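Q: I'm teaching a short session on how sequence maps to structure, and I want students to see two examples side by side rather than one. Could you give me a first protein with its sequence written out and its structure tokens following it? Keep the formatting plain so it prints cleanly on a handout.
A: Of course. Example one:
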Amino acid sequence: MRIARSSTMAWLTAQLITLAITAPVLHVRSAVAENVRQPAVAGAFYPADPKELSKMMDDMLAKATPPAVDGEILAAVAPHAGYPYSGPVAAWTYAALKGHKYSRVVVIAPSHYVGFSFTSVYAGDAYSTPLGQVPVDKEFAHRLAKMSSTMQLSEKGHQSTQDAPEHSVEVELPWLQKVLGNFDVVPIVMGDQSYESSRALGVALAKMLRNDHDTLVLASSDLSHYHPYDEAETIDHKTLHALEAWDYFSMSRNFEARVWEACGGAPIVAAMIYAERMGANKAEVLRYANSGDVTGDHSRVVGYSADLFIKSAHAADAPPPFSLTDQEKAELLAVARNSVEHMIQKKEPYAPAPSTSETLNREYGAFVTLTERGALRGCIGYTSAMKPLYMTVRDTATLAALRDPRFPPVSASELPQLAYEISVLSPLRRVTDFEQIKVGRDGLLMKNGEFEGLLLPQVPVEQKWDRQTFLEQTCVKAGMTPNCWKDENTDIFGFTAVVFNEKNSE
């Protein structure tokens, strides 16, 4: 019996040595991983064979040529569709990460199959891929889940069952294994994609990682789904323009309103909030494409982008100040007046001719202010860039005349006395230093949970307010106490505006 046991042990030892030489490196801790999330889409979204998978990624990485990164990559975005479709774009994100060392990666993803109303931080021990197991940083996950009532330790959204083969975290892991080697993962799936959930997660991560330079936050997301090729490009570039401008508040609003599209919109917003609070000052879109570029079928495509959020010693150049020509101002003022008069006189929305101006066809937030003999008669606007500018002015002019709750609707007899002023807003950017707020240049938007209020740049000038009074009065406009601007839960967004009326448009 002793001889038999000795022979068996020798055979097992030989097999273990062989496996150690030929098998992919397993990313495991010293403790045994008992609750391991098995691959759900290996063999479907990407090859199940490790050699085939590795070769596919190597080929795609070789074709991705992102520019050298000037600074520290704090967060990134990568798509999560099948590798033949989104892989050529995802490779740009991962090629940019080559040579960077991270011991922990927080992957934030959406839920495609299971509905739930919280952010699910994975409670298991590891995620498995054909390249081996990626251990979960359980201590970090447990601490994170306690940071907000919007987050829970859970397996919701992480299932690998036939009925719920969630792929949004899983498909990112082989790429990370390929370019980073060994790391721990914190898998997060967002069931609620509201701004509040994104903010809670982004702020919590920034608090936990304040002095950490060894963690990457990765948002897993595709962009628009199943539009014709040209329409998809138009929708997706609206999202990417806001991403580059750091206007994540408008992004979140437009995702919720389904004006823009990204299945992982909330993860992107959370990653941006985290990166901003960690000092990121550059947002770079490395690559954009859609499934039509791979298949040749342009009838129904899915959009993909590769993006980085970087903390650099050389901040991105500020965009040139937004401006409008005298002709564009005159066109917008005519749209505003015609919109109000048409609705009141003919009881139907005004249909302006499509603008030939490229600027007026781009999305901007705008307010229309109506006065009658110098007195305010209505003021309503879109704070987010939802529609082409000339259509935003059409809508907000009518709303200012008929829907401002402070005033009765404008009557036909008042039309000749109305004067029009238009304020076109820049993208919104969170204020990180109160001293940077300049009265007369900046407008403010404040948000704290359900409370929200906005004051245009011309208001504090008209009222002769200093900076602190401006902050206090914006709080009051939002329905909060005057000192709400000191509350860490209040987000303050600044913007500039091009303001013009019928007297100063020429």
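Q: Perfect. Now a second example for contrast.
A: Example two:
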Amino acid sequence: MAAPVIKSAKRKRFIKNTLVHIMLAVLAFIWVFPIIWVVLTSFRAEKGSYVSTFLPQSYTIDNYVKLFTDTTILNFPRMFGNTLFIAVCSCILATFYVLSVSYCLSRLRFKMRKPYMNMAMILGLFPGFMSMVAVYFILKAVGLTEGNLIRVALILCYSGGAGLGFQIAKGFFDTIPYAVDEAAIIDGCTKWQVFTKITLPLSKPIIVYTVLTAFMGPWLDFIFAKVICRANSDQYTIAIGLWKMLEKEYIDSWYTSFAAGAVLISIPIAILFLCMQKYYVDGVSGAVKG
């Protein structure tokens, strides 16, 4: 009697696993197919956004070449450089702000600690673009909305309020035993030394997460960049440039180059993730071993 029961259970498990894998395969296809289509379109030789076939009939690299050679209307290399500079500076500042605020709220005890966390939680319920009009007029009042100072204005916008997003990093710091800090302080370390030499080396996973999110925000943002840059085309970021490519007067000649640009903007994020993945894995394994 036991053998048929075991055989029936194995059959049910096999059918269940097969159905689950089929569903996962379908979902994976749905998720990956748009990415494949964008990549194929970036190599499409047919011009324009309206074609008779769904997949390209012929392929070329001219769409990528055009991005870096045809700068008469849309200067993609300059937009790429602007965005990269803004994203890197914002990433460094925002990462420092988030980790510093998170550490202070996790380890220090002061009078306004809980009110500040409650206020940050409430402010986090509102989308950031609600303040863009007020932010723009403040930046205009101090003269940061013209010329190369626009980049400074965008860096301030992306990094200035980063400290309000402390919740995840604070939760990670809370998992590190306070006894480690006490032992370091007994050995003569200051709070800054404990933070930089003890806590941060133990926090590689959350540092990687913070760096990635701090970089992706300004790299992909459109709303604040559009409001602050306005008609200053020499200060445009990639998001604005890609949006311009889809405007009525440009879409016919720039549509395939738009797809090429969409592929190119994913490369820095992929490189950043691949470079930092090692530290993320090492940090997790170290935490498990500890």
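Q: What should students look for in example two?
A: Point them to this: The chain has 14 helices and no strands. Also worth mentioning: The longest helix spans residues 2-42.
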